[in-house]
Amino acid sequence: MPVGLTSSEDTKARLIEAAGEEFAQHGFRAATVRQICKRARTNIGSVNYHFRDKRGLYIAAFEHTSQLAMTKYPPDLGLSQEATPEERLQAFIRSFLMSLMAEGFPAWHGKLIAQEIASPSGALDQMMDNSIRPLYKYLAGIVRELLHEQEPQDGEFSDATFLTVQSITGQCLHHHIARHIIDALCPDDFDPTGIELIADHILQFSLGGIRALSTGATEKNSQGR
To answer: What's the pTM value of the predicted model, to 2 decimals?
Structure first.
């Protein structure tokens, strides 16, 4: 038992770790409480006691690994308040990729996300306000600055900002979710786990697209006058 944990806390921690591994491997529907408890070396009643049911345990595993990711890889990676939008975008991309792909992080974190995206259970919907929406607003704020848009009065970002955020996060997710395809297609000298190389490419590619969008919007506005 880890130092400082009570017997109950230790059981709960083992259940979350075992559940994360099982859900990541088999998905929410195929994973069984019996197998999770066997892996966690505890009885089925402990799931009901700590999490009420299988779904409660699934949500807990998601929330646990998301909190770990935010602590280990915060979206600003510790940048100062004077950091430029470009530097903050670079940090966000590296942070996102490391939370999905970095070695040493719970191996089931990225797989769990991939399973949920492939076969949604609704877990991400329940995490929307606590983790997903704040991250979206943070990245959207960076993109808005890079696009030289005014701060939204109603809290809603423009279509250009929204779509750019989806493009950036989509690139990051693709390098994890489609890793087996990337492995089959990539050149011999390309390392599909090279986070720094991938992060730099996504940054430069995204900045190029943002500059094109910003220039296009400026030209459109000038022509409309």
So the answer is: 0.87
